[in-house]
Design a protein that fits this description.
CATH superfamily: Histidine kinase-like ATPase, C-terminal domain
Distance between the termini: 33 Å
Strand content: 15-25%
Largest sheet: 6 strands, mixed
Shape: globular
Strand order of the largest sheet: 1-7-8-6-5-3
CATH architecture: 2-Layer Sandwich
Number of strands: 8
Helix content: 40-55%
CATH class: Alpha Beta
Structural class: alpha+beta
Length: about 240
């Protein structure tokens, strides 16, 4: 893969702001759900629209429903990011977690003509990690790889041990990341996707940091990208419950 890694492992300086914003976002979700339900009921009332005026009304209701769905998705992603605060380490078989993610995305990958390959180290030791958070981090990387291959390609997931660390590589043969974006992709709200929220990769970075690890990316346009997640085999006491 091409060189030029961008690493992130520093702590989050605005955790308190995130916590306050999360509470605000949660309060928004309740009325938004009510609005979505009422728009859906209105769509049902107007589903047999016949006149041009009625059809325009139905079309506008559809626009409202799509925007509500977009906002709900954004809030869900933000809340997922904000709630990634407390680490609950336990014996975690990394290969099993990676394989579960690959099995989960396999049907969609097949529809997109993406070949999935796994190179999981057979002698990988069990790590002290939070399996739920780690699965979310890996899923974010895999979904990002899928999005980078709209016309099909190859997705390779690998694990190996590096001293006191476990390394997880997610490699794709997709469109690659422009060099001027490499320093931004782990920033909250940064996204190049039309329907993206900009929370997937920042959440993965946050999970890596909570484990005392790092996330790194190497990419080349039109050839693909490789994301490397490294986490310690054992969690230091100072990392447990860090937010």
């Amino acid at each position: 893969m091409p060189a030029g890694p961008e690493q992130h492992g520093a702590g989050d300086p605005w955790a308190q702001v995130v916590a306050l914003a999360a509470g605000f976002a949660h309060e928004i979700k309740n009325p938004l759900s009510t609005i979505a339900l009422n728009v859906q009921l209105l769509q049902e009332d107007w589903q047999n629209a016949a006149t041009p005026r009625e059809q325009r009304t139905l079309k506008r209701l559809g626009v409202l429903q799509r925007e509500i769905a977009r906002l709900t998705h954004l809030l869900d992603d933000f809340l997922r990011y904000a709630r990634t605060r407390d680490l609950q380490p336990q014996p975690c078989p990394i290969n099993q977690v990676v394989q579960e993610v690959l099995d989960f995305i396999a049907p969609q990958a097949a529809r997109q003509k993406i070949e999935i390959r796994a190179g999981l180290a057979p002698d990988l030791p069990v790590a002290q990690a939070d399996p739920k958070l780690l699965k979310q981090a890996i899923l974010n990387l895999v979904l990002n790889a899928q999005d980078a291959m709209p016309n099909g390609g190859e997705l390779l997931a690998q694990t190996l041990r590096e001293g006191d660390l476990i390394r997880i590589d997610i490699t794709d043969t997709g469109v690659g990341i422009p060099p001027n974006h490499l320093g931004k992709i782990f920033n909250v709200y940064f996204t190049t996707k039309e329907d993206g929220s900009g929370f997937g990769l920042p959440t993965t970075r946050r999970i890596a940091e909570l484990h005392g690890g790092t996330i790194e990316v190497q990419s080349e346009l039109h050839r693909g990208s490789r994301f490397t997640l490294r986490i310690p085999l054992r969690q230091a006491a100072s990392n447990e419950g860090k937010g």
